[in-house]
Write a structure and sequence with these properties.
The chain has about 450 residues and is of the alpha/beta class. Strands 1, 2, 3, 4, 5, 6, 18, 19 and 20 form a nine-stranded mixed beta sheet that branches. The chain binds zinc ion.
Length: about 450
């Protein structure tokens, strides 16, 4: 009986997934498209991409590519294809309004928001319900649920002084070891160190993770970037504007208050920051760019309001009205300073990736914030081609998956985003996702968004 029930449930889940599929043929030709390949090449026009059995079979000039018999042919004049985004700071939780120090799991809406926005691979950067995150990953892998391919980061490895009761405080390095051992055993493939961790705890976590071939990232505060790099951390989240090592009077293992003035005082071209950049590059520490979450009041979009539950919408708009002009200025400065650092880091040979971080004051939403990051990176001086590479191939490289995903190349998985317009000319076109291919299956972003209308803030 239970077997029959399980089979029936699997069938129902499969049918539910089916209603979001726009293109399901085994062989598909995307004809007359512009391509931004994710690997940094100049955009090319009038290409044809052939997808077969979930992989990219051919990419070439439309005039030269023979479309296989029986292929579903999509004429896409006026559209651009980019690789599926590799979101490196994703979460399946969102701040609970009206107070922002509690977070609720968004297992239902967020995977769909990510996929609808073009994110086909999502590395979480910490979870409030790591067990739920792991189950969502499993159900997506099994085809029961819809969402990006997921890689789960367990965390938070946090110490006493945390700002939210969602996080359990460690007491010593032994707790860090036990935490990593447990979640590694349960399927987590990376770990997130947080603001009040000590150097000894961070070292214990890194050593335990590395012994299993797994990685550690961090949003640090008590530990400076250079200290963390020397301890062997693999990745730092958010970048310079959370690096406390330049805050006057910083004590070891203590998280100081970092004020807007401290951020203002950071000199990217100065000897101190340049030394940090050199050490991060030497130690192969990647940085995850998250400018969208630093924006206190980004342009208000209808699609964002539509995604929110009615009470969340009211709370969000009231809170947004109360943001002071000085807070808005500080937020703009933070974005500017951070991207200035990121450009210097990339110039020095550093690996820069990007992710949504749907936290903060609720303005950064799963998926939408991944797109917003790309727009902010371009506003900050990266080219569209560079910004798209940061959001695609660079993350794939960090994950060791660059042979499978991250760029548009024959043989790679057909994780592709069909965009109406041309992001190389107008970066906001990145929001116009029309089909999102994951493993060769083309999902309908509009239907995915419709299915989560009014959900954010609830589930
Ligand atoms: Zn985060």
């Amino acid at each position: 009986m239970t077997k029959v029930l399980a089979a029936l449930l699997a069938l129902t889940a499969g049918l539910q997934a089916q209603q979001f599929v726009k293109v399901s043929a085994k062989t598909v030709a995307l004809v007359h498209v512009k391509v931004i390949d994710g690997a940094g090449a100049a955009p090319r026009t009038d290409l044809t991409i052939v997808i077969r059995d979930g992989l990219i079979a051919t990419v070439g000039d439309a005039g030269n590519v023979t479309i296989p018999d029986g292929a579903e042919r999509l004429d896409l004049v006026g559209h651009t294809v980019i690789p599926g985004l590799v979101g490196m700071h994703e979460h399946l939780f969102y701040p609970a309004f009206p107070r922002h120090n509690l977070y609720t799991e968004h297992a239902f809406s967020f995977p769909r928001l990510y996929l609808a926005s073009g994110v086909t691979t999502a590395r979480t950067a910490g979870g409030m319900e790591v067990q739920t995150d792991l189950m969502i990953k499993k159900w997506i892998d099994e085809g029961k649920w819809i969402g990006p391919s997921m890689l789960i980061t367990a965390g938070y490895l946090e110490g006493p002084g945390t700002f939210t009761p969602n996080l359990l405080e460690m007491r010593n390095p032994g707790d860090a070891t036990a935490f990593v051992e447990f979640w590694a055993r349960m399927g987590a493939t990376s770990f997130k160190a947080y603001m009040h961790i000590t150097r000894a705890e961070l070292k214990a976590a890194i050593d335990t993770a590395h012994a299993r071939g797994l990685k550690v990232t961090g949003h640090l505060c008590s530990v400076g970037f250079r200290e963390a790099a020397a301890l062997g951390i693999d990745n730092l989240e958010h970048g310079l504007v959370v690096d406390t090592e330049f805050v006057p009077g910083k004590q070891p293992d203590q998280c100081p208050d970092m004020t807007a003035a401290d951020i203002e005082a950071l000199d990217v071209q100065g000897a101190g920051v340049q030394q940090t950049i050199r050490e991060l590059v030497q130690h192969h520490v990647a940085v995850t760019s998250t400018p969208a979450v630093f924006e206190s009041a980004p342009p208000l979009q209808q699609r964002f309001l539509d995604a929110l539950s009615p009470p969340t919408r009211v709370e969000y708009l009231l809170a947004r009205d109360r943001i002071s002009e000085s807070a808005k200025r500080a937020s703009a400065n933070r974005v500017k300073k951070e991207i200035e650092f990121e450009r210097a880091f990339v110039k020095a040979g550093g690996l820069l990736m990007a992710g949504a971080d749907p936290t903060g004051n609720g303005s950064a939403l799963a998926g939408f914030a991944d797109q917003r990051n790309i727009e902010l990176l371009v506003a900050g001086g990266f080219t569209a081609v560079e910004a798209i590479q940061i959001a695609t191939l660079n993350g794939a490289k960090f994950l060791g998956m660059e042979k499978q995903i991250g760029s548009i190349e024959a043989g790679k998985r057909a994780d592709l985003v069909v965009i109406e317009g041309n992001p190389a000319a107008k970066i906001a076109d990145i929001e116009n996702t029309r089909i999102v291919f994951k493993g060769g299956v083309g999902y309908d972003p509009a239907k995915l968004l419709e299915s989560i209308r009014g959900s954010v803030g609830v589930q």
